[in-house]
Write a structure and sequence with these properties.
By secondary structure, the protein is of the alpha+beta class. It is built from seven helices and 17 strands. The chain has a six-stranded antiparallel β-barrel. It binds arginine. The site of arginine has 13 residues, from strand 16.
Length: 419
């Protein structure tokens, strides 16, 4: 049907009032842009990292310090970090100082050498080079004034380090969480879906390239998982492991060289539900793929401790798995409570540990088996305390998840892998 055309008749003459508004707006936009530019170039605070080695001569090196999860290592790191915090907060760099973190402790020719990362935040007007000398100057004061520790600081000892290089140091150490990689203070574990890099030690153990179980990266060549995952197939050639938080789009896939099932695994009672998987060629650590720490054999997780279970398992018994890795916060339950008549009534043995939430709800489920029950220490270093093993259905009150208790098998892990 025909429609008569309506030609818009634009006014050709310019209204001086409108022109005025445009000019003013233009000037304002230009001013704001220049202002923001100056602000970001000169006044905005940016993070800067420095690395320093502290030679502590009066602390005796012991083999306990080889393990970042040992009480000795934790206490010493904390003492050094506290000393750094006090020192910098009382210095001329108090406003710029953010955090001190001990990445590594090793044996020195006398005493120990602690590698330290220092985070500062300052504006582009402060030049990096002058900061170097200021930091070194403050550290040098420790030489004669560091409480119980005798510290040697050499002057060439403080070096600026790019964020990527600091990250490379951190991913080689076990249990480094995403918040550590940026030396920020806090981690926000939001919701139930994980994001890339949140649980870098979580792997998917796959049978004929399909997800079958979770697995836990404990070195560049070894994973920890549950023995019951291999109930039907034990031939390593049919298994592979993927890394990355998405099953559909993994960051790496690696073949399996060897499977070591605990010789005393008993399917009926779930006892000794633990296995080791050796990768064919190992995996290169990245920001999103690196190992978790192992607790020591003599360590115990306190009842009530807050822990996380992660996996691609189903959301209800009999359901299907998910593509995006999920996480759940649960609490450690004592074996006595877990063995109460209304709970598992004696089925939980000393190589197992229970975790759940008071009314039920959050729990592991089918497909999560072999995955980690992990806890962060006060310095945000994560260790694996449990391996998803069994439970009656999922998330029911008085029916928490039952996990293989890792410290109980710590010596077996060392015997088999040297880790
Ligand atoms: N056996 C299950 C699996 O193969 C894991 C069961 C864990 N159940 C639980 N309620 N926490 O994936």
């Amino acid at each position: 049907m025909y429609r008569p055309g309506r030609v818009a008749s634009a006014t050709r003459s310019l209204n001086p009032f409108v022109v005025g508004i445009f000019v003013v707006a233009g000037v304002v936009i230009l001013g704001v842009t220049i202002g923001l530019l100056i602000h970001f170039l000169a006044f905005a605070q940016k993070p800067y990292l420095y690395q320093s080695n502290l030679h502590i001569t009066n602390v005796e090196y012991t083999s306990q310090l080889d393990s970042p999860t040992s009480q000795e290592y934790r206490t010493l790191s904390r003492t050094i970090e506290n000393l750094m915090n006090e020192t910098f907060r009382a210095s001329s760099l108090a406003r710029q100082f953010r955090r001190a973190y001990v990445v590594r402790i090793r044996q020195g020719n006398q005493g120990v050498i602690a590698t330290l990362l220092l985070k500062f935040q300052f504006t582009g007007r402060t030049t990096g080079a002058s900061m170097n000398t200021r930091i070194a100057e403050i550290l040098r004061q420790l030489q004669n004034n560091s409480g119980t520790m005798t510290i040697n600081v050499s002057s060439e000892n403080v070096q600026p380090i790019p964020a990527e290089a600091a990250q490379d140091i951190l991913i080689r150490e076990c249990g480094s969480s995403p918040e550590l990689m940026t030396l920020s203070f806090e981690r926000i574990i939001a919701g139930t879906q994980a994001r890339a890099g949140d649980w870098p030690w979580q792997a998917s153990l796959q049978l004929n390239n399909a997800h079958h179980c979770g697995a836990i990266l404990i070195s560049n060549a070894w994973l920890l998982t549950a023995a019951h995952c291999f109930r039907s197939v034990r031939d390593p050639r049919r298994w592979s492991v993927t890394f990355g938080y998405l099953l559909s789009n993994p960051e790496r896939r690696v073949n399996v060289r060897r499977i070591i099932i605990h010789p005393n695994y008993i399917a009926e009672t779930h006892e000794n539900d633990i296995a080791l998987v050796e990768l064919n060629g190992g995996v290169t650590f990245t920001k999103n793929i690196h190992r978790i720490c192992l607790p020591q054999a003599n360590q115990n997780i306190p009842v009530g401790a807050s822990v996380y279970v992660t996996g691609w398992g189903s959301l209800q018994p009999g359901g299907t798995g998910v593509n995006v890795l999920r996480q759940g916060a649960v609490q450690i339950i004592s074996n006595d409570n877990c063995n109460a008549p209304q709970s598992y009534n004696g089925l939980v043995t000393s190589g197992m540990i229970c975790a759940g939430t008071p009314g039920g709800g959050t729990d592991a489920c089918q497909g999560d088996s072999g995955g980690p029950l992990a806890m962060a220490d006060s310095r945000q270093i994560w260790s694996v305390w449990g391996i998803v093993s069994w439970g009656y259905e999922c998330g029911l009150p008085d029916r928490p998840g039952v996990y293989t208790y890792v410290p109980y098998y710590r010596d077996w892990i060392t015997q088999q892998t040297g880790i």
